[in-house]
Amino acid sequence: DALPQAQAAPGGGFGATLARAVDQAVEVGRNADAATSRALTGEGSVTDVVLAVGRAELTLQTAVAVRDRVVAAYQDVMRMPI
User: Fold this and answer.
1) Would the pLDDT of 68 be above 70?
2) Are 25 and 42 in contact (CB under 8 A)?
3) CB burial class (10 A; 0-12, 13-18, 19+) of residue 2?
4) Distances, alpha carbon 43 to alpha carbons 7, 30, 31, 59, 80, in Å
């Protein structure tokens, strides 16, 4: 699985799903760091580093896009007349 998928658990709610997605994004970043460290010590390959960093970059871009959508939705709600 190239990208982690946040699955909504029954009764977990949006907050729990968001927390799991953030935890998975952090884990992808840690995996990229570990792959880089292995390559620097000669235990890993450059290909593994490129793939891990690519996954981390894509995960970060996805997180930023979701954040932007949440902020835009919040701003739309705040502009609604009461």
Assistant:
1) yes
2) no
3) exposed
4) 34, 17, 14, 25, 56
pTM of the full structure? 0.69
**Euclidean distance between CA atoms 75 and 67, whole angstroms:** 12
Q: Give the 3-state secondary structure of the chain.
A: CCCCCCCCCCCCHHHHHHHHHHHHHHHHHHHHHHHHHHHHCCCCCHHHHHHHHHHHHHHHHHHHHHHHHHHHHHHHHHHCCC
Instruction: Please state the separation of Cα 47 from the chain's center in Å.
Output: 21
What is the phi/psi pair of residue 76, to 5°? -65, -45
